[in-house]
Amino acid sequence: MAFKEYGSYDAVGLAELVRKKQVSAKELLDEAVARTAKVDPQINAVVVKHYDYAERQVERGLPDGPFTGVPFLLKDLDLLEGTRTTSGATILKDFVADHSGTLAQRFLDTGVAIFGKSSSPEFGLMPTTESRLHGPTRNPWNLEHSSGGSSGGAAAAVAARILPVAHASDGGGSIRIPASASGVFGLKPTRARNPLGPDRGEGWGGFSCGHVVSISVRDSAVMMDAIHGPEPSSPYVAPPPERPFSQEVSRDPGRLRIAFTDKSPYGDAIDPEIAAAVREIAGLLAGLGHHVEERAPVLAADPAAVMTTIVGGNTALTVRLIEQRLGREMTDNDLEILTLAQSHNARKTTSTDYVAAQLAAFQISRALATFFESCDVFLCPTLCAPPLRIGELNTMSNDLSHIAPILRRYMPGTSMFNMSGQPAMSVPLAWNKAGLPLGIMFSARFADEATLFRLAGQLEQVRPWKNRIPPMCA
């Protein structure tokens, strides 16, 4: 391969090499393509390959930004002009975007070379990535398990060291879930921190946001510095940071008040190895001088019920827009049974039901805001069970009754922070005896990514994860 040391650098480090002319953007792109060829047949993370697009970027000359020359993947839900965006859906397998999303353009402005799209479940609806169109994305730590979802391709590609950082998005946990399952770092930003336009002002009723998954904490922070901020169509704006996020990573977090729980928000028992990992990290933080106490917020409504109504309504609109464009009704030849069922069920709910779900989300947000009046950070499991096995969630089953119980067991604690809009991150701090990653989740007050980046930087120093390499690695 052209650049054998590639895998030992994060994205900031690779860009520095390009800046110093120690390696070229073309060499980095060739390396990423070679690594994709080596491991993607096994993990199936890069489902749209447009190497010619990235080659033209490099030939024209990349913008001077913090990541100039770094190879990059866009999640296969976001538009990039002139390239295919399938959203994991059979009906959209040949759809070519006629414009780029605001976030995609901001990624381009950082100087990255976008050589493909990473896999997502159909319309990002599942916490595993197993679309009928593209097939399952497998976990580099164990190919029988899922890499998580919905940003499963991004997390698998980063974990397998195809590249050090990749676009991801999170409407109910879809940055944090695959970060946990794949053993990488993933921070969900504050609501409205990063743009979602130009075609929409918000996603999933304000629950959804976009950012990245990465190996290093500083890549996440430097990227957020480059892409955050409103656009002309922003319906609301996140409070600006006190200083660049990249400066927070190396700052002393001080003595934080950290509340923690090793339980599901529903009170259900969780995997014992995950519970033990949470307690171990709580002890580690206490040893670092933080004030740590065991307590958890009491929620005023059921997050799962809120998600069913809000996400269902948004899915129904997506299906309707496709039907209007094509002039016919969608069938299970076009879309997965789960998508069609969500759309069908949503059409039976009323506008009053939707507003009631919004009110329940507000009540959850209020309860969390009150809880954070007496703590700086909340520590809990990202996932309450190890990474799911491939096939556990079957979106083409005629009986979908298996899905809700699995979601309640697997990811009960992620979506509440989409409802509150608070920043939350999954940090790769533990692995179980079977060798599967167990992410630990930390959340902070609204607009307080700074505290999370400081804490993540501290944890990265005392419990480094960069050199933990999965068996399936480029």
TrEMBL record:
Residue ranges, annotated region (Disordered): 231-250
Top-level division of the source organism's lineage: Bacteria
Database matches in SUPFAM superfamilies: Amidase signature (AS) enzymes (SSF75304)
Gene3D superfamilies in the record: Amidase signature (AS) domain (3.90.1300.10)
InterPro entries xrefs: Amidase, Amidase_CS, Amidase_dom, AS_sf
Record field: transmembrane: none
UniProt domain Amidase: residue ranges: 27-452
UniProt keyword Hydrolase present: yes
Job description of the protein: Hydrolyzes indole-3-acetamide (IAM) into indole-3-acetic acid (IAA).
Stated name of the protein: Indoleacetamide hydrolase
